[in-house]
């Protein structure tokens, strides 16, 4: 495993562990998701450069577009949650309540 692969895989795993174990606020969960998507984007970009294949070159840009859509939806949920509940703490949210 090259140092670049180790760096991006460890960044992805750190984002995943942050998402799994540090679920206090919705904003921290969204930041962990964005870190994971950024490490996937950089890893996929390096992968297409190493393979020197033009067929896979739109893949990182497609992943970046989906990441931007995910970020905008997450921020919209964060604003809606903060307006209705007054906080972004995940423990205060009750999903069974209408």
TrEMBL record:
GO molecular function terms attached to this record: NADH dehydrogenase (ubiquinone) activity; oxidoreductase activity, acting on NAD(P)H
Subcellular location: Mitochondrion inner membrane; Mitochondrion membrane
Family: Belongs to the complex I subunit 4L family.
Alphabetically ordered keywords of this record: Electron transport, Membrane, Mitochondrion, Mitochondrion inner membrane, NAD, Respiratory chain, Translocase, Transmembrane, Transmembrane helix, Transport, Ubiquinone
Keyword field contains Transport: yes
Gene3D superfamilies assigned to the protein according to its UniProt record, in alphabetical order: 1.10.287.3510
EC identifiers of the protein: 7.1.1.2
Enzyme class: translocase
Cross-referenced PANTHER family: NADH-UBIQUINONE OXIDOREDUCTASE CHAIN 4L, NADH-UBIQUINONE OXIDOREDUCTASE SUBUNIT ND4L
Transmembrane segment boundaries: 6-22, 29-49, 61-82
The protein's name in its UniProt record: NADH-ubiquinone oxidoreductase chain 4L
Pfam families xrefs: Oxidored_q2 (PF00420)
Organism field: Apolemichthys kingi
One BP annotation, GO: ATP synthesis coupled electron transport
Stated role: Core subunit of the mitochondrial membrane respiratory chain NADH dehydrogenase (Complex I) which catalyzes electron transfer from NADH through the respiratory chain, using ubiquinone as an electron acceptor. Part of the enzyme membrane arm which is embedded in the lipid bilayer and involved in proton translocation.
Catalytic activity: a ubiquinone + NADH + 5 H(+)(in) = a ubiquinol + NAD(+) + 4 H(+)(out)
Bilayer topology: Multi-pass membrane protein
GO cellular component, one term: mitochondrial inner membrane
Presence of keyword Mitochondrion: yes
């Amino acid at each position: 495993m090259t140092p670049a692969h180790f760096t991006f895989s460890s960044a992805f795993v750190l984002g995943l562990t942050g998402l799994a174990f540090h679920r206090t606020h919705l904003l921290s969960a969204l930041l962990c998701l964005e870190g994971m998507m950024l490490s996937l984007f950089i890893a996929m970009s390096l992968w297409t450069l190493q393979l020197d294949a033009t067929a896979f070159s739109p893949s990182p840009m497609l992943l970046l577009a989906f990441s931007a859509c995910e970020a905008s939806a997450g921020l919209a949920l964060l604003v809606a949650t903060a307006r209705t509940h007054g906080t972004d703490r995940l423990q205060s949210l009750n999903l069974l309540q209408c």
